[in-house]
Write a structure and sequence with these properties.
Blueprint lengths: L4 H4 L10 H21 L9 H4 L4 H9 L3 H16 L6 H25 L6 H8 L9 H20 L3 H17 L12 H17 L8 H25 L13 H15 L7 H7 L2 H8 L3 H11 L10 H41 L1 H12 L7
Length: 377
């Protein structure tokens, strides 16, 4: 995503992106696209192949292929929390985020309205005018609010000592993850709350460095073990209950948290040479999300009519595996290219003009009118 620097996890300076974490961002987005292949395509709905043929190798593969979406969300937020706990939110950063969201919302809405996939109603038009509309489990609106919370969360974590910070994390993990992963406990939350918890975890790694956090080999093995354990939980649950994704089906679940935590520390310690290509692709990842998961109309067109996930379920197993991976990589590549062109053709020229004509005025307005500070202060 060029995303706003916060989403991209970058400070406002020209410091190069960390290619190891940009590669991590790319892997995470591929995981999310694969997740949407399974959960947004009708494959899991009543009478669909995954429920009608629960014990076939096709079904088991698709469960494992599509299990990583909520884990991917945690990975993205780990990157954001790690970088933004030492950076400032600016009007320019927020404007980048809002303009990117609005652009894709309106362009995709108009295209699908013309194509007949989207009904134009007063309700839908009002929804397009609002930057957020659902604070339950819709990623983008919750991220916008979380983004505005970051300055306050940063003040909090920077005034906690190591012990206080760790105890706060333990309280949240026990309440939301350990209890939330036990079926007879009812733990309810929305993504704004959970994103803040991930911020606390990631900021602890940044603000209170410990030798164990630097042990690349250890975190590599722990990542592998946690991935295997997560996959085993899905395979086992597939045979004993309909809740196949029991321990990864939401961002607070035990394996969604464990895999994200271990893999983040592994990628953080990878020694990867700075790569302009990796960094450029990583900068488009938020755009990939905004495009391919934009709306119900997009889901119908993309996964139903274009990719036809259900229709390809009956392919020979080897062909199904190849098809799934090719689809995910193709969607990522096309959406990434679209967002790269947006950055080069729209965002960069606009903010070059913005820096020259508006940046100082906006900052002065915020300082004097919104924050009530005088020039003398």
């Amino acid at each position: 995503m060029t995303s706003p620097d916060a989403t991209a996890g970058l400070p406002a300076t020209k410091k190069p992106r960390s290619s190891n974490l940009e590669l991590y961002r790319i892997v995470c987005m591929l995981m999310i696209v694969a997740h949407h292949y399974v959960v947004n395509s009708g494959l899991m709905e009543g009478g669909a192949p995954l429920l009608e043929h629960p014990d076939t190798i096709h079904t088991i593969f698709l469960w494992l292929f599509g299990m990583w979406g909520k884990t991917g969300i945690n990975c993205f937020l780990m990157i954001t929390g790690y970088f933004m706990c030492k950076n400032q939110i600016t009007i320019k950063k927020f404007l980048k985020l809002i303009l990117q969201v609005y652009l894709y919302n309106w362009v995709i809405f108009i295209i699908f309205a013309i194509a007949g996939y989207q009904t134009v109603t007063a309700h839908n038009l009002i929804k397009q005018l609002l930057p957020f509309w659902d604070f339950t489990n819709n990623f983008v609106p919750c991220f916008i609010i979380f983004y505005l919370l970051i300055p306050f969360l940063t003040i909090l974590v920077q005034h906690l000592n190591r012990r206080q910070h760790l105890l706060l994390i333990l309280l949240f993990i026990v309440s939301y993850t350990l209890l939330g992963s036990i079926s007879f406990f009812d733990v309810t939350f929305n993504y704004i709350t959970w994103f803040s918890i991930i911020f606390f975890i990631a900021s602890f790694i940044r603000l209170h460095p410990m030798p164990i956090f630097e042990r690349k080999q250890l975190w590599g093995w722990l990542t592998l073990l946690s991935v295997i354990a997560a996959m085993a939980s899905v395979a086992i649950q597939q045979h004993i209950t309909f809740k196949v994704f029991e321990y990864v089906d939401d961002s607070n679940k035990i394996f969604a948290v464990l895999v994200a935590f271990c893999s983040f520390l592994w990628f953080k310690n990878l020694n990867i040479k700075q790569s302009n290509f990796i960094n450029a692709v990583g900068s488009t990842c938020f755009g990939v999300l905004l495009i391919h998961a934009n709306s119900d109309a997009m889901r119908v067109w993309l996964w139903g009519d274009t990719v036809d996930c259900i229709g390809h379920y009956s392919l020979p197993f080897g062909q199904l595996v190849l098809y799934c991976f090719c689809v995910v990589f193709a969607i990522f590549a096309i959406c990434s290219l679209i967002d790269y062109l947006r950055i080069q053709c729209l965002e960069k020229p606009f903010f070059k003009w913005y820096d020259k004509h508006l940046d100082a005025r906006f900052n002065q307005f915020v300082e004097t009118k919104l924050l009530g500070r005088s020039n003398e202060e």
